[in-house]
Amino acid sequence: MTASQQRIAPGRMMPPLQESSWVRWSLTAFSCSFLILFLFVPLVVVFTEALRKGFGAYWAGITDPTAWSAIKLTVLVVGISVPLNLVFGLAASWAIAKFEFWGKSLLITLIDLPFAVSPVVSGLIFVLLFGIHGWFGKWLDAWGLQVIFAVPGVVLATVFVTFPFVAREVIPLMQEQGTEQEQAALTLGANGWQTFWYVTLPNVRWAVLYGVILCNARAMGEFGAVSVVSGHIRGKTNTIPLHVEILYNEYNFVAAFAVASLLALLALVTLVAKTLVERRIHYSTSLEPTTVES
Amino acid sequence: MSIEVRNISKSFGNFTALRDVSLQVHDGELLALLGPSGSGKTTLLRIISGLEVPNPNPSSDILFHGQSVVDRPVRHREVGFVFQHYALFRHMSVADNIGFGLRMRPRATRPSKSEIRDRVGKLLKLIQLEGFGDRFPSQLSGGQRQRVALARALAVEPKVLLLDEPFGALDAKVRQGLRTWLRRLHDEIHLTSVLVTHDQEEALEVADRVVVMNQSRIEQIGTPDEVFHHPKTPFVMEFLGQVNVFHGRVTKGKIELDDPFTTEQHEPHNNSNPQAIYARPHELDIQRELTNGEGIAAKVRRLHLAGPIARVILEAENGGHVQVHLSLERFYELALQPGVAAYVVPKSGRVFEGASKTILG
Amino acid sequence: MVWRLKKHSVLPGFGLTLGFTVFYLSLIVLLPLTALCLKSTSMGWPQFWETVSHPRVWASCRLTFETAATAALINAVGGFIVAWCLVRYDFPLKRIFDAMVDLPFALPTAVSGISLTTIYASSGWIGQWLARWDIKLVYSRWGIIIAMTFIGLPFVVRTLQPALEDLEKENEEAAACLGANRWQTFRFVIWPTIIPALLTGFAMAFARGLGEYGSIVFISGNMPMKTEIASLLIITKLEQHDLAGATAIAVILLVSSFVVLLCINLLQWWSSERVRGVA
């Protein structure tokens, strides 16, 4: 009997390119448990631990003056580093996507570089530059300026680790869109700035927003790099994540998780925003003409 | 091996792709499924192959050589399927692609490595790609890839060969060459084959019989000259070539045209209702003066003379356009120029029962 | 022929944007990294070697590499199955699960660190169950692996998803027509096509694990020679004002992530070369 004479029971016709339901269900069950165990549980625990001793203790943890100063510092750091990297991202995408020049791929590689540097090393390099034994250490000291173990160091380290986020989201999209629309705008009499503002930017706005969302999340949550340069001075150079660490190491778990819950909320908002923006990007690129079906 | 399709329907959600379709494919014939996109031809082919499952219905069945295969999964149906975009395995060499089906067999029926190599060699020769075995699909042209896809399908010695728009992704010249080659190949191996195409020229040239499909149904089945010269429905007539439509009536086997000026308001000559009369461009003649019988007054608008026939486009007085194909001799005899007034005279035409009114041209 | 740095273009703003890009890049990225390189070269080989070959440094590097590799392996297997299910199957709450995959990107590492520690501690949600079987994950290398797995998961899933979505259905149909069963289709048609993406995801998760700090310090226990990872040792050395030692370890981390990055680029080049020209 050859294989061709085998028959499956009539009426049990399966779509031909589907695994058996047994395989499907066990794989799905595995995936869901894997995701719940590794992702969902850690997120939930943050909130349950924060509210373990009731809402009063939670509120006390958040409204503590040192917590407040950590929040203010984080907002300041984000307020500096995100706009800087946004401007850089737009400038870099314009230069890279709209022009052909020598060394372009090297430039793209260099922009991605901070992703390859581990957070602690990202902090260390600024210590090597501006620390008391660093390159500019003596000079800064002579002028009475302090970078390391002070706010400027925290800002610099954050700018470094969030450096590529906007650029790497916008460059590929701008490259894809080519230069035809800009050339059309120029022939219609627009100047360079108008062309960028009215033609280029609207085409990539969702990607820009996407990059800003990611950049913002990383800037608020950066721990390793900031931890190296901040010096952990309470009420002065502590960002929210560093404050969480201190509280946790002091066994003040409820307060630690209460402050952490702010960051977890931020993560949730980031995820929702990211999903929505991804859908917009998908939608706007799917409007592009695709191959014609015959 | 003959194929019989009985009462097959298929819907995808709200969309009905096939409505109660029945069809017979004779042993050793090459049958073309012809129709516009969305007519259900590809779905029918995929149901025959087992890649798609028809709507459950006790009276529907698919038989290969009288034996029901409707419950048999694709991989046991022994069909060779050729895809429009080749679907070659890009990480395998040409030889590995062709030998894939043989290597997938259960150990008991799997040929030895040397047998597989021999079979692959023979097939490479058959598709005129000897020496290409070690190349990768990305190193081949479109036409070569499609030949490899065909060889891959033939390697497992299928009982039937199913081709889904096999030349659809190729440019016109390669297409023409492959078409002739496919017909010759079929004459050599006589494998029952079903070819899906939306190109009427391809269907008429290659197939033994043509199935014209429209809106999930079969419109007509017949040999190429049957469907071309004796279309059963206006759709078949229009799909298989250019058509002019006139209003008029056929009385006692003679065509009587309505005055083109008054198609809408005109009181009919007699009791029979005006009908749509279909005539292909070569079934019309042009006369400078109306000698006898019916004709439509028109002005010559454009002339296409590049080709074996003269194509003349005229504008009737009601604004409709008529296309007429004349032999070059007849054309020069008439001495037509753009702007010249003439009469279009039907030599023959066709009327379909229940045909809807269609505008002139 | 005149050799030009830039092809002619009618669009304005090249000088301004490229100038700013290069200036800002040099200031923020290149200058600090150069400082690191110069510092390490100024040490000279003997001193570098002396630092690196110290048992404590050696142990921490080994630990970091081993745990990162284990975590990347777990992610390669688990992440592959997750990506497969997300792309191919429908199940309730699928979109939420899909969005959740990015959580490790969005959740600050310090938060995930204290959260994971709490869960797996002997009084935690999962830890107390494991404690009954005398399994202790926190403050051991398994704790480090858990944190690295958490951090690396999205890299594998998000690299595999597009690769799985891009698979051509026709290829699988062709295999089925040629008599291959589902397993054969997977093994010989699907697997070879997605292996580059899987390796890329693995490498990215590995690289991320090598450098991870925030989520690990809480769960690892930081015992020298046992659960002290390389990043932590850098900080310890810094606190002891041993800049040279910190730099030496940093160089090792940096060089290894560059090597991984290079491997990823080679992988991508290889896979695009393999399928070049096929539409």
What order do the helices and strands come in, and which of them pair?
The complex is a heterotrimer of chains A (294), B (361) and C (279).
Chain A: H1 21-50, H2 54-63, H3 65-98, H4 104-116, H5 119-130, H6 137-142, H7 151-161, H8 165-177, H9 180-187, H10 192-221, H11 224-230, H12 240-249, H13 253-286
Chain B: E1 3-12, E2 15-25, E3 30-34, H1 41-49, E4 61-64, E5 67-68, E6 79-82, H2 94-103, H3 113-126, H4 142-155, E7 160-164, H5 172-189, E8 192-197, H6 200-206, E9 209-214, E10 217-222, H7 224-229, H8 234-239, E11 244-251, E12 254-257, E13 275-279, E14 284-287, E15 296-304, E16 309-316, E17 321-327, H9 328-334, E18 341-346, E19 350-351
Parallel strand pairs in B: 3-8, 3-9, 6-7, 7-8
Antiparallel strand pairs in B: 1-2, 1-4, 4-5, 9-10, 11-12, 11-13, 13-19, 14-18, 15-16, 15-18, 16-17
Helix pairs in contact in B: 2-3, 2-4, 3-4
Chain C: H1 14-43, H2 45-52, H3 55-88, H4 94-100, H5 103-106, H6 109-120, H7 127-132, H8 141-166, H9 169-177, H10 182-211, H11 214-220, H12 230-239, H13 243-274
Please provide a written account of the structure:
Chain A has helices spanning 21-50, 54-63, 65-98, 104-116, 119-130, 137-142, 151-161, 165-177, 180-187, 192-221, 224-230, 240-249, 253-286. Chain A is mainly alpha-helical and 294 residues long. Chain B is 25% helix and 31% strand. In chain B, the strands form four sheets. In chain B, strands 6-7-8-3-9-10 form a six-stranded mixed sheet, with helices on both faces. A five-stranded antiparallel sheet of chain B has the order 14-18-15-16-17. In chain B, helix 2 packs across helix 3 (113-126) and helix 2 (94-103) runs parallel beside helix 4. By secondary structure, chain C is an all-alpha fold. Chain C is globular, with a radius of gyration of 23 Å. The two termini of chain C are 36 Å apart. The mean pLDDT of chain C is 89. Chains in contact: A-B, A-C, B-C. At the A-C interface, helix 1, helix 3, helix 4, helix 5 and helix 7 of A face helix 1, helix 3, helix 4, helix 5 and helix 6 of C.
Report the sheet-strand fraction of chain C: under 5%
- Low-pLDDT stretches of chain C are none
Low-confidence stretches of chain A: 1-13, 288-294
Strand count of chain C: 0
Strand portion of chain A: under 5%
Strands of chain A, total number: 0
Mean pLDDT of chain A: 86
The end-to-end span of chain C amounts to: 36 Å
Assembly state: heterotrimer
